[in-house]
Every structure is written in structure tokens, then in C-alpha cells.
Design goal:
Elements lengths: L4 E4 L3 H7 L3 H16 L8 E3 L6 E8 L2 E9 L4 E10 L6 H19 L1
Parallel strand pairs: 1-5
Antiparallel strand pairs: 2-3, 3-4, 4-5
Length: 113
């Protein structure tokens, strides 16, 4: 049973998803399913980015490779997926985080109109 709904904003998430191999896509869908169905999502799946206004990263790991998908909550039961990327260093690229924050702002601006 779903405890929250997960949707993508515009086509940023879909564009990222379609560039990934099938195994990675399957793993991403498993993480999304966990976000939709688990009352308390473990932080190894979904983690708040400290110092941001409610930006989270969905965390995907397959072997030694790591991917991240930025997202945020709109109310308690709606999760909005934004852009994603393959993580190649310890630090999240500033440009990816800035893009996610811009999209998040754009979402709320558009919603309030």
C-alpha cells in the first residue's frame, strides 16, 4: 500500500532515467517503490541534504557505482523527482545541486500561479 506518491517534475528525471542501463533503471524503480510504500524510508535510500530548504537525494548503488536523484516533498505525501546524475566523487557536484534547487523553486512558483 502506498503511503506517498512519487511523481517527476517536467522531464528531467525521465531524461536521466532513459540514459541509464536497464539494471540501474530497475534499481531506481526499487528505491522509488520504497519511498512510496515505507512509512519511514531508511537514510541509505533517501537523505535530506543539510543546508538546503528541504532538498533530498534518493540514493542508488549498484556494485561500486553510485547514482543520485534529487527530490523534495510537496506536503507530506507527495515526492517530486528532479534531476539525477552518476556520482563519481565523494562530493555532490555543486552544479547538480544548484540545478535541483532551481527546479524546486520553479516548481513552487509554477504551482502557486
Amino acid at each position: 500500500m502506498k503511503v506517498r506518491e512519487v511523481i517527476a517534475y517536467e522531464n528531467y528525471f525521465e531524461d536521466f532515467l532513459l540514459q541509464q542501463p536497464k539494471k540501474v533503471q530497475d534499481k531506481i524503480f526499487k528505491i522509488i517503490e520504497a519511498i512510496e510504500t515505507l512509512e519511514r524510508v531508511p537514510s541509505n535510500y533517501l537523505k535530506l541534504l543539510v543546508g538546503t530548504p528541504g532538498l533530498y537525494e534518493a540514493r542508488i548503488q549498484l556494485g561500486s557505482n553510485i547514482w543520485r536523484v534529487f527530490c523534495f516533498f510537496d506536503d507530506d505525501r507527495l515526492v517530486i523527482l528532479l534531476n539525477g546524475f552518476q556520482k563519481k566523487t565523494q562530493k555532490t557536484p555543486t552544479s547538480e545541486m544548484e540545478k535541483a534547487l532551481k527546479l524546486m523553486k520553479e516548481y513552487f512558483t509554477t504551482k502557486s500561479k
